[in-house]
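Predict structure. Input: Inositol polyphosphate-related phosphatase domain-containing protein, 782 residues.
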Amino acid sequence: MFYRDARTRELLKVFNIDGQIERMDMPPGQDSTFEDEIKIRNATGSRKEKMQSSFGFFQRSRNAIIGAADAVRRVAAKSGFGDDNRKTEAIIVATDGIIWTGCTSGLLVQWDGSGTRLQDFHYHSFAVLCFCTFGSRIWVGYASGTIQVLDLDGNLLGGWVAHSSPIIKMAVAAGYVFTLASHGGIRGWNVMSPGHFDSILHSELAGKEFLYTRIENLKILTGTWNVAEGKASCDSLTSWLGSAAGDAGIVVVGLQEVEMGAGVLAMSAAKETVGLEGSSVGQWWLDMIGRTLEEGPTFGRVGSRQLAGLLIAVWVRNNLKAQVGDVDTAAVPCGFGRAIGNKGAVGLRIRVYDRIMCFVNCHFAAHLEAVNRRNADFDHVYRTMTFGRPSSILNAAAAGASSAVQILRATNVAGANSAEGLPELSEADMVIFLGDFNYRLDGISYDEARDFISQRSFDWLRERDQLWTEMEAGNVFQGIREAVIRFPPTYKFEKNQPGLSGYDSGEKKRIPAWCDRILYRDGRSTQASECGLDCPVVCSISEYDACMEVTDSDHKPVRCIFSVDIARVDESVRRQEFGDIVKSNDEIKCLLEELCKIPETIVSTNNIILQNQDTTILRITNKCEESNALFEIICEGQSTINDDGQALNHHSRGAFGFPRWLEVTPAAGIIKPDHTAEISVHLEDFPTMEEFVDGAPQNSWCEDTRDKEIILVVKVRGTYNTTATKDHRIRVRHCCSTQTARNDPKANLSMQGQRNLLHRSDYQQLSSSYDVFDHLRNLHSP
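Output follows.
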């Protein structure tokens, strides 16, 4: 909450959400850039007295703005508006019995069965929403739509973007891991991914790109205007945008200095901290531009973003809306210690034909001498502009729109930037920078500039342009291009003064300059590159001009029309090619056959009798010399044994697992080739074994003394086999009295021998047929 002095309108106090007063003073040296700006103003001003009087105003404004920004920044740092990143969102038990949990921060934690924390892993900065485990791999689904695959030791095997929205559920079936996204989309991924299977598919599909590649063309109209806190007439907007929007599919507008002043900047900083933005003045501009573009019948606004005086908005023609999505915005303040939006940038990102385009409206440091600060402003914007979800996620989601090929990454993807540590803007297929960059003309006087302008000697003037010089030296806008300038400098003019005679003729006589520019980067590495899936966006400039007849501001509005070719994938054709490859490629067919293989295994016994808290060791041997065997032990049902040794009242256990009197450890695991797993089968002798006996409810003080019998089913499958299993059934009898031993000579003989441990000669290999099951049941039937 903010309190202002009613007389001076200075910001007096800022209260945080706990009701505590945040200090308003600033640490020394925190905002050296503001002091630099004041020094520049002193150096360039013509009247020292006027500058001294205005310095007090700027100093008071500085204290108010920096105080507000610093206060809300400290509150945010205390997580006053943040979430608890330690919250556990997902849990699963892996095949080896290790428990995995996932947190809101993206942290993955390993636990053992006793609750001891073993290891932490952090491969992604988004929240973990779900797990899926199969064989020796763990699949992790994130809120970003990303899937990562880990081995049981926690090593990252690979990752890709499966959906453009959060993954909320995963399941294994029919050789695939199916993922469900929050928007309702379901996709299937081969359980062998990532691996050789993906490499083969990628190689084969790449050779058939020409069959499923389509080239789309659209026009993008971009415009930038520093409106100097004024408002434009309908005629001005029509001259600037309306007259050029006839065949444009997308219209991008960037405005600077929509509104300024200490109060506006302080309120903007406060809004940004709590996730709010926009103003009535900004809305006025959006409404007026919308009317100019015939918003509704012709165009629809898909997004906008305001940061103090900076405003960007995008309109899309109605017949193109179906191809546009994933709209996201961002803002980067550059003023007053990188905290306030009097200078900075606002960005808007959209997906068009599954390609990512970013539009960035910038306003950099002013004054002739501030070249290095302008370069630093660009560098700060380019490196730190962060959208809601990284561009790599949206690009990968588009590339993985079919379940044919995943974008594999075996690297750390934590942090705000991409997996490779690159800024998000670098990952877009096309970026357009527009705005008041404030670069001036060097080494030329006011009169000389006016003479060259009147002669339209723009090529000569460009050699004096600071931006052109800095770009040639590689100091700013690296890898970004600009069309040839064929219009007069757009700054500085007297308002409402038409023609070139309107250049500043006052006491300061500011040298005309091309402050207002539009630059771009497409997908080309060289000018000769053609549009294709490896270079998906190629654009050319059909118009780059300034509207010199508009006089509503001291800047002239500038527009640039791009003709953009976009390579997209015809998904129906690619799916058809994918199916043909799977059916015809011999190597893939061999890999798919691996899904059906089940290693040969044997178990040490098919008959176990437990009494008086006995423990028996059940051994499962993997006789295969090449493949791991996955096993899982379940309880198929329980019966009660009467006095004659007859099994009665068979009840299926369903999803309830083992009875409370039996402990099987481990109940699942992986057996390496030519190895044996030892399973402990232990009797827990509780007074009460079941909640119901003969249909009558039992309480905790009742004791059921009748013998019980269950059938354990050992399900064995291969590493990638998700459907078929080879089952071994084992009879386990719980003897509550000695009567069973007397009635069952076999059981008595077993107990007299080696308790319940059988010799190697008693090992049997069982199948999953019902004949074997019946045979086992007949072992205790009269």
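The chain has 18 helices and 37 strands.
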